[in-house]
Design brief:
The protein is mostly beta strands. The protein has 2 helices and 41 strands. The longest helix has 13 residues, at 3-15.
Amino acid sequence: MTPLRIALALAATFLASPAFAQDATRIPHVEGDIVVDGKLDDAAWSQAVPIDLGYEISPADNTPAPVKTTMRMATTRDALYLSFHAVEPNPKDIRAHLTDRDDAYNDDFVGVMLDTFDDHRRNYEFFVNPLGIQMDLIREEATGNEDDSWDGLWSSAGRITDDGYDVEIRIPFSTLRFRDNPGPRRWGVIAFRNYPRNVRHQLANVVVPRGGNCLLCQAAKVEGMEDAQQGRSLEIVPTLTVTDSQVRDSRDGPWHGEGVQIEPGVDVSWAPSPNLTLNATINPDFSQVESDQAQLDLTSNFALYVPEKRPFFMEGADYFNTPFQVLYTRQIADPDFGVRTTGRTGSGAFGAFAARDSITQLLVPGVLGSGFDVLDEPTDVFVGRYRHDLNAGLSLGVIATARHGDDYRNDVAGVDGRWQSGKNTVIAQLLRSTSEYPAALGFDDNAPKGNAFRAEYMYDSRNIFLDTWHEQIDPGFRADLGFIGQVGYDKSLLGGGYNWYFDKDSKITKVQFYSDFDITHRFDGQLLERELEAQLQANGPWQSNFGIHGLTRARFWDGQLFDESYVDVFGSMTPRSGVKFGGKFRTGPQIDLNASRRGQGRYIDVYGNFAFGRGLSIDTDLFQQSLRRDGGTAFEATVFDLRFGWQFDPRQRLRIAVQGSNVDKDQALYVDPVEERSRDIGAQLIYSYKVNPRTAIYAGGTVGAFLDDENRDMFASERGLFVKLSYGWQP
């Protein structure tokens, strides 16, 4: 961080306005039993405090809510209880489906956001649809990211009634983290109702100004919970995974594999205080139950990002977030064990974990591209993160990552800061890395080192928003535990836009225009990219979003600058309950990276989500990418992803996923040899029974087939069966 940035940050400490002390609503303690069954007939609810969701915060601008919703709150010694009575004049219009957990966002639902530390940094979100399907998330205020990979242990029930629907929720205090102080505790609360009809109405108990860059600053305050008991807060989850997978290299080749593999493991979670959580795992089950979304991009030379899906790494992931992604846990491919701690102090938050990884996966970055490599040796992994809040608007943080093997190491350390006041936000980070790689990997530099720096300013008001940033990464910078695929460059961006809002009864409720200009140079001054883009989009009837986007740029590749440009149109809509579809079409001059020639590119993506009855669903995604040049089609790629789901009840689910790709290239249009023809297809069948996120049974199988230039006829190339058992035990 430059001296000027430090001075600005320190000045912000004194310029930031003090937080306004709001009156708090008292949450009563009740002694009677509340049975969570979706029926609001328990006598204890008469003692609970009612909170009305009186405002429509979107698309209307904090006008009176179109329907009445009442939330009630009460506590016992070990749990927070919530009930919702959501009125609907036409109950047949209620959108509700049986789905898997965290998959009912298109339905009607109600819930609450809890800022349990009342510090506007992060909050829990608990939502329930009218059939009792749960959705829970962690939201990070600094980025606005909502992460539904967090799965808390709580109970809920819902039922549709003659005048709407009712929901009951019980959240054990052992599921939450909050200040461990004597006396009453003070939390921030936003009650929320999703009311999707022709437009998606969002209702709340508080006013949420448009253009505000701090949602949690608007939360209502509640007090109570002075007798909250977290119990032992100990959870032990033994797991057992049994797999049998086989592969073969040709149609007539033998099947081979390692036979039946039985992998027992155990995860332990303990919260000795509300401010601290400890986790440990031995022989962890890092198997991934569901397949990743199919991806393919023939116009980029950089590694594709695949999101994390493994529970041990997903929980508490927001504690490690920084402006640069120096932690990408899928780089920890096959750990033997792991330990983690996360927690809060009176003025900050911390997280750390260590693991032993039996496989060392490397993301090898470059100026013009990146790819993955594997170092065949185990490594020890450590990550540590601490953030200190100087006041309500200013925080400073440090992060360090380390990965060491016998003749390999990579260390990254850095500082970052965030300042927010009113409509203004400033973020900055400075990192330093040192590395050593074995000569066998064949890198040009076996001991690279370097710095990475980023500074960003954002302005967000009701109508106008601005964003400008600069980042610089040295050629020798390496973050082997992160996802930084480009190094040896500096890039600056200046962008902004304007929002037009219309009356909620208008066919068009919002129009947004955005444009930015960015320029990127290589470390030696060579221009890598100069780009101008603009986008105009609108929200309309049937919960639709549609628009047009254009881009023009000069792009450096293979020693020369190419002109690229394209225009794309996009749109999506939800015309009725259980039906959502959309697509994108893009066309324009693009580079064929393999030939270093420019051609006419085309990209088409069509997707849809369809529900039949309460529990049947189909999700589809089909995209095609092609490039024509020199009188022919240089390449054409088609990828499809088709998923069938049958949710028998909130616990049982059957899922079938079918994915495939087809890539054709014309060798006559290339100098160097290319794979002219490749096809693959795979299918996965999964049955799951979930008592809760920790206690579950998964069983299924996979098959796969492919063909290429060497194998002209498609043949079965892989097959496997698996069973995964887990049990959440709380002694």
